[in-house]
Design a protein that fits this description.
Two copies of one chain form a homodimer. Chain A is of the alpha/beta class. Chain A is built from six helices and eight strands; from the N terminus they run βαβαβββαβααβαβ.
Chain lengths: ~190, ~190
C-alpha cells in the first residue's frame, strides 16, 4: 500500500482551494473516495458544492464554518480577496461562535480520518483557523501522526504554520503575480465562487 | 454580461493543471460549460479524464498531444516532475509529429473559442507548446483578442511567455517549496496523475 501524502497549499495567490478541488477530481477519477471539510465557510453559493453533488458518493464537501460577514457601516466588507465569505475574526478575541464551529469541524476531521472511509481528506482553510487561534497546531500535528498510513491529507489556506510546513511532503506556495481586483474587476461568478 | 477573464497558472510548482481542474469544477457548479484542451498529453491514464466523463456534457477534456516518453537506455525518463507524460522535445529541433499535433490542437482551440459553445476554455500545458516553438505566441495573442467577450480563457504550464503575462487578468505562480520526490517518494497515483 502506498504511503499517503501530507500536502499543503499556501501563499497569497489564487489556487489553494481550487487546486485541492482539482486534486479531488483527479483522485475520484482514480477510484479514490474524497472528503473536503471547509473551515470558516458556510455558504452553499460556492460552485464546488453544487458540482460535488454530481460526484456523490465519491466526493463530499462539508462546511463547518459560521456564516458571518464583517460590516462597516452599511457596507459589506470582506476579510480578504481570497474568499469572499471569510469572516472577519480578531485573532486576539475570536467570537465564541467561531471557536465552537472550528472545534466541531476539527472533531469531524478527527472522526473522518479515523473512520477509514476516505482515501483523501482535505481540510480546506484550516490554516486560517490555526492562525486565528481557533485550532491548536499541536492537535493538528497529533492528528497527522495518528492518521491511517495510506490516507492523503491536504491542508489549504494562507499563513501556514511552520510546523505544518515541516511535516508536509508536498508544499506549494501560490503566489499572486497579477489579480483582476487590481484592474477594478470585482468577484466573478464561476471563478471566485 | 460579465467580461470573461484571461487566467494564467505558471511556475515550477504543483497546481497549475490541478487548479484549472478545480476551476472547471467550480464553473460547472455555477452552470457554465467548460472545455479543457490538453496540449502534449495523450494518455487516458490521467484521473481527470475518467472523472470528467461523469460531468459530461458540461465538462469535456480533449487531449491533442502525441504520446512519447524519452528513453535513456532501458529506463523511462521523463521531461520533468510536473507531468510524467510530457515528451522530451528539443526546442531547437522539434519532431514533426509534435508540431502537427500542436497545430491541430491550436486549430481546435480556435474553432472551440469561436463556436460560442463554451463559457470557459482551458488550454492546458500550452505554455510548453509555446516555449518549445510548436505554437507562435503572436497567434495566441490574436486568439485572445478575438475571443467572445464573456468567455473565460485559462492557460497553464511553466515558463509563461511575457506577452501572455502582460495580457492576462489573473496570473498565479505556483512555487515549489517542498516536493515528495526530494524525499525519494515517486509518482503517486491519484495525486500526480
Amino acid at each position: 500500500m502506498a504511503k499517503g501524502l501530507i500536502i499543503l497549499n499556501t501563499g497569497n495567490g489564487k489556487g489553494k482551494t481550487t487546486s485541492a478541488l482539482g486534486m479531488s477530481l483527479r483522485a475520484i477519477g482514480n477510484g479514490l473516495k474524497v472528503l473536503m471539510i471547509q473551515f470558516l465557510k458556510s455558504s452553499t453559493a460556492y460552485g464546488e458544492i453544487q458540482a460535488s453533488l454530481r460526484l456523490n458518493p465519491d466526493f463530499e464537501i462539508i462546511q463547518v464554518g459560521k456564516e458571518c460577514v464583517y460590516k462597516e457601516g452599511n457596507k459589506r466588507r470582506y476579510q480578504c480577496t481570497d474568499c469572499a465569505f471569510l469572516c472577519h475574526i480578531d485573532p486576539k478575541k475570536p467570537d465564541p461562535g467561531h471557536i465552537s464551529a472550528a472545534e466541531n469541524g476539527f472533531r469531524l476531521a478527527e472522526q473522518s480520518i479515523k473512520s477509514g472511509k476516505y482515501d483523501m481528506i482535505i481540510l480546506d482553510e484550516i490554516n486560517y483557523a490555526i492562525s486565528y487561534g481557533l485550532i491548536k497546531i499541536e492537535e493538528v500535528i497529533r492528528l497527522i501522526k495518528e492518521k491511517p498510513e495510506a490516507l492523503h491529507l491536504v491542508f489549504t489556506g494562507r499563513n501556514a504554520h511552520p510546523d505544518l510546513i515541516q511535516i508536509a511532503d508536498l508544499v506549494t506556495e501560490m503566489k499572486e503575480i497579477k489579480h483582476p481586483f487590481q484592474k477594478g474587476i470585482t468577484s466573478t461568478k464561476g471563478i471566485e465562487l
